[in-house]
Specification:
The protein is an alpha+beta fold. The chain has 3 helices and 12 strands, in the order αβββαββαβββββββ.
């Protein structure tokens, strides 16, 4: 009997297989690398990123970044309250009247009936027109009559005094005279025309206090102690102020001997009723003998 032949199978040669597999491996590696690298090069995210702080992005608009929707707002540090500005304080120049020669004498001190108008203004007025360098006078208001004794034998101002028309409190007047004595201590009377050797010259000065007060609301509340009784003005003229303090507005002037009713006290100042209408103001304690 003849044998049946089975199907014929051709097997690849063993030396060709490694070459085909190597090529496939190279192609797979290159394809995998390209598949991993190209999304990154193109800026694409193929999978969601892990939740966390958002990446900072450059903002070229100049506007402040907006807070993410739904997230808690960052705490805002409150700005400190602005410090209130203090209004500059400077003493207003006093109003200086015309020079009045009240007396003149010869070298021996004998009084002369007729005096010439000695030109003391040329050295005096500029020094009287400012009180910024006078300590304690920045808040003083009122009228002062100031006299100067001129001695042309010594060519010096030998004395500064006050006249009867002065309406300043004693402490303020003392400060004013001390300041003027310093201002005129080194003044020489050289070159001033004169007929006699000694003169007394008076000026009327109106002191107007500071140019600007502190801003409203900066002063401490006024503490007033109730008081009752009556008193009499002991000064020649007492100034009645709207509120305690020499820097405040003068609302009245009382002559010596005037009776007033006392209704309150604040430090060295007393509140008094100064007229028949019952209007009130403040006077310094020594003005009514307190």
């Amino acid at each position: 009997m003849a044998r049946r032949q089975g199907p014929k199978v051709d097997l690849p040669k063993a030396d060709g297989a490694p070459l085909r597999l190597g090529r496939i491996g190279i192609i797979a590696v290159v394809g995998f690398g390209v598949g991993v690298a190209w999304p990154r090069l193109a800026g694409l995210d193929l999978v969601p990123s892990v939740p966390g702080a958002p990446a900072a992005s450059q903002d070229l608009s100049g506007a402040p970044p907006e807070a993410p929707t739904g997230s808690a707002a960052a705490p805002v540090t409150p700005k400190p309250a602005p410090t209130p500005e203090v209004t500059a304080r400077s003493t207003q120049p006093p109003v200086v009247g015309e020079a009045q020669v009240t007396s003149c004498r010869d070298a021996g001190g004998g009084r002369i009936e007729t005096c010439d108008a000695v030109d003391f203004d040329r050295v005096a007025r500029s020094r009287l027109s400012t009180l910024d360098d006078c300590e304690g006078l920045g808040e003083v208001t009122g009228v002062a009559s100031v006299g100067f004794d001129l001695d042309f034998t010594k060519e010096r101002v030998t004395r500064v005094s006050s006249g009867k028309a002065t309406q300043l409190e004693r402490e303020a007047l003392k400060s004013l005279l001390e300041c003027l004595e310093k201002k005129f201590s080194g003044v020489a009377l050289v070159g001033i025309p004169h007929e006699h050797q000694r003169y007394t010259v008076f000026y009327r000065m109106e002191l107007k206090g500071v140019l600007a007060a502190e801003p409203a609301g900066s002063a401490a509340p006024l503490a007033i102690t109730p008081a009752s009784g009556s008193a009499a003005v002991t000064w020649d003229t007492a100034l009645v102020h709207a509120t305690p303090g020499r820097e405040t507005k003068v609302v009245a002037r009382l002559r010596g001997g005037t009776r007033v009713g006392v209704s309150g006290r604040s430090g060295d100042w007393y509140r008094v009723k100064y007229d028949a209408r019952g209007r009130e103001g403040w006077v310094f304690r020594t003005a009514i003998g307190m």
